[in-house]
Design a protein that fits this description.
- This protein is of the alpha/beta class.
- The protein contains 16 helices and 21 strands.
- It has three domains: 149 residues, Alpha-D-Glucose-1,6-Bisphosphate, subunit A, domain 3 (Alpha-D-Glucose-1,6-Bisphosphate, Chain A, domain 3, 3-Layer(aba) Sandwich), CATH 3.40.120.10; 107 residues, Alpha-D-Glucose-1,6-Bisphosphate, Chain A, domain 3, CATH 3.40.120.10; 95 residues, TATA-Binding Protein (2-Layer Sandwich).
- Helices cover 37% and strands 21% of the residues.
- It has a six-stranded mixed beta sheet, sandwiched between helices. The protein has a six-stranded antiparallel beta sheet with strand order 16-21-20-19-18-17, with helices on one face. The protein has a five-stranded mixed beta sheet with strand order 8-7-9-10-11, with helices on both faces.
């Protein structure tokens, strides 16, 4: 967070890309000026590689003024003679990834703060592969941003650029549907006699699943499909308590399952027929099981350090190599490409697929979950809760919890520095009566993971996008998870 001395004019904001882009509070640091600075960083990155003609895809979500921030970014790119494909309306983040790949674009920009509070907006960068921009790409962009504060950023009016053939509006739906059909039988899903509740949490994924599955026996009922930049007063992240209304509707007995999306639809989630939330680590296990058991794939899998230990157990069962990365898809995507992985995922509910995109796609993930449950039904494992129980029969238990310990924005850097010392000096030797067998310092230097012998673990990590400390737990029972979570919170609060 930028600070300045009283009585002095504030200098340009320091902009750094975290685990998933740059995010800040609208009208504080997230301003048109700073969006233009970020766009100039992308423009210079493209120009330095002589790829102006390849162009940049620019898209945006349903947050406050996102379409106007996207237009501002496009104007800067156009001023550098970089061709721009600009979304004709709010679209899911992964549609930008899809368009980058299909067009062979040099990069992509998405104006979104994903699941952050409604007060924020953000700026994501996509690489030519469709994956999140990797560390090298972001470092080059950040270097330009560091030197362009306090001066006017060049701009070119959209109308002028469109007349010159440099600006093209796009609607990704028709092409995306064709793209999905390469690897998924949408007609089989449409023909299923099931009733599904979809909650896009007022985000840009509204309408997409219903539209992709329209015209058959399946009944898709959507809630919270209207635009609401306030997101109903909750963070648009598909976890409890944000999705409790959807859980209650499914628990009423009228639906076979529920499917969830976050604010920009690159994260997914599920609800079983009883209205029970299927947590993010279970979804990772379900998708890995689906690819191995039902699709017969054996390429590697990638997971972040805060993902489930079921991955290694499933990997051993099916002969699949599992690679671990730091938190953030800017690490997962490149690792998927490097290893030829079929699957990659992170704890926050984002999953990418080698047969689709090496980037998170909540809509595709939800469709694969639906396909999994229908295949499990054909195998005699129905309803959805039975299919999930089968996963745990072969992959072991997974009781997962996470809490976010919020810190004042201005005090966050000092709090982080203090805890990074304290968590080493006062590292626990035991957790809930179980000896800590291994302590790992995260490769990114932003946290620590504590392991016990039965595979349970506790992770304390500083968010790269928000002023908070996250405490994660995966355990072999609910009681152990509760105890570990309390111990982790005590460590953070001192």
């Amino acid at each position: 967070m930028r600070t300045s001395d009283p009585g002095t004019a504030p200098g340009p904001a320091t902009i750094a890309f975290g685990t998933d882009g740059w995010r800040a509070r609208v009208a504080d640091d997230f301003t048109f000026e700073n969006v233009r600075r970020c766009a100039e960083g992308v423009a210079r990155y493209v120009v330095d590689r002589g790829e102006e003609a390849k162009g940049v895809v620019v898209a945006y979500d349903r947050r406050f003024a996102s379409e106007h921030f996207a237009a501002a970014a496009a104007e800067v790119l156009l001023a550098y003679d970089v061709a721009v494909a600009l979304a004709a309306g709010a679209v899911p983040t992964q549609m930008a990834s899809y368009e980058v790949v299909m067009r062979g674009a040099a990069a992509g920009i998405v104006i979104t703060a994903s699941h952050n509070p409604w007060t924020d907006n953000g700026f994501k960068v996509k690489s030519p592969s469709g994956a999140a921009g990797g560390p090298e790409m972001l470092a080059a962009i950040e270097a330009v941003i560091a030197g362009n504060g306090g001066r006017a950023i060049p701009r070119r009016p959209l109308a002028d650029a469109e007349a010159a053939g440099l600006l093209e509006p796009f609607d990704p739906f028709p092409g995306y549907e064709r793209f999905v059909r390469r690897t998924l039988d949408l007609d089989a899903l449409r023909a299923a006699d099931v009733r599904v509740l979809v909650d896009p949490l007022w985000g840009s994924g509204a309408g997409w699943i219903g539209r992709l599955l329209a015209g058959g026996r399946i009944e898709v009922v959507e809630i919270h499909g209207e635009r609401n930049p306030f997101f109903g007063g909750v963070n648009p992240e598909p976890i409890r308590p944000n999705v409790d209304e959807a859980l209650g509707l499914v628990a009423g007995g009228s639906f076979d399952l529920g499917l969830l999306l976050d604010g920009d639809a690159d994260r997914s989630g599920a609800i079983d027929e009883r209205g029970a939330f299927v947590h993010q680590l279970e979804v990772y296990g379900l998708l890995l099981y689906y690819l191995a058991e039902h699709r017969g794939l054996r390429q590697p899998a990638v997971k972040t350090v805060n993902e489930t230990s079921m991955a290694e157990r499933l990997g051993a069962r099916y002969g699949i190599a599992v690679h671990e990365t730091p938190v953030g898809f800017k690490y997962v995507g490149p690792k998927m490409i490097e290893t030829g992985a079929m699957f990659g995922g992170e704890e926050s509910g984002g999953y990418g697929f080698g047969m689709h995109l090496p980037e998170r796609d909540g809509i595709y993930s939800d469709l694969l979950l639906l396909d999994l449950f229908l295949r499990e039904r054909a195998a005699g494992r129905w309803p959805v809760s039975r299919a999930i129980a089968h996963l745990h029969e072969i992959a072991g238990p997974s009781f997962y919890q996470r809490i976010d310990v919020h810190v004042d924005r201005a005090a966050y850097p000092a709090t982080k520095a203090r805890l990074l010392v304290d968590l080493v000096a006062n590292a626990p030797s035991e957790l809930a009566g179980r000896a800590v067998t291994r302590t790992d310092a995260l490769a990114t230097g932003d946290g620590f993971k504590f392991h016990v012998a039965d595979g349970s673990w506790l992770l304390v990590r500083f968010s790269g996008t928000e002023p908070l400390v996250r405490v994660y737990v995966e355990a072999t029972s609910g009681a152990v998870a509760d105890a570990f979570l309390a111990a982790g919170e005590a460590l953070v609060r001192g």
